[in-house]
Amino acid sequence: MDRTVKSIKIRSANEKDSLSLVILAEEFMPREVDKEKRVNVLKQALRNLNYELLVAELEGEIVGFIDQWVIHDFTHGAKHSYILNLYVSSKHRSKGIASKLLQEAMENARSIEVSEIHVTARFDNRLAINLYKKHGLVKEHLQLEKEFK
């Protein structure tokens, strides 16, 4: 196992992490969104009991994160988790950090009796798709989206 993975600390994010997380998110998802607005949206999400954001820390620096929302689906009579983002900074990829984040998020979901985990990945993101498959996720549905501006 890579020494980096052994020294990675996975923990729940807190509001103090907001700016660091927004800066890291801009690495993979540059948007025309004001940084302050992103920070405020993140802080609001962190206050929601159905939201979890885990960070991967290496020597005090946040190098990756995963977030998930848990919803109660009455039609299935169960809780479902929706992973929205899983990201590791470009200089720390291929070291097992994403796997460690995903494992922790899945364990946390299982501990609160989530019955299904859902995740989306871009069709061309083979690394993410392979990671999810490696952890037992299977292609089940097609997700469509429409962006409102």
Largest sheet: 5 strands, mixed
Strand content: 25-35%
The low-confidence parts are none
Number of discrete helical segments: 5
CATH-derived topology: Aminopeptidase
Summary tags:
5 strands, alpha+beta, globular, Aminopeptidase, 5-stranded mixed sheet, 149 residues, 28% strand
Question: What's the short version?
Answer:
By secondary structure, the chain is α+β, with helices and mostly antiparallel strands. The chain has one domain (3-134): 3-Layer(aba) Sandwich (Aminopeptidase), CATH 3.40.630. It has five helices and five strands; from the N terminus they run H-E-H-H-E-E-E-H-E-H.
Give your account of this protein's structure.
This protein has a five-stranded mixed sheet with strand order 1-2-3-4-5, with helices on both faces. The mean pLDDT is 92. It starts with a helix and ends in a 15-residue tail after the last helix. It has helices at 3-7, 18-28, 35-46, 97-111, 126-134; strands at residues 9-12, 51-58, 61-73, 78-88, 114-119. It has a single domain, classed as Aminopeptidase, CATH 3.40.630.30. Helix 4 links the parallel strand 4 and strand 5. The chain is 35% helix and 28% strand. It is of the alpha+beta class. The longest helix has 15 residues, at 97-111.
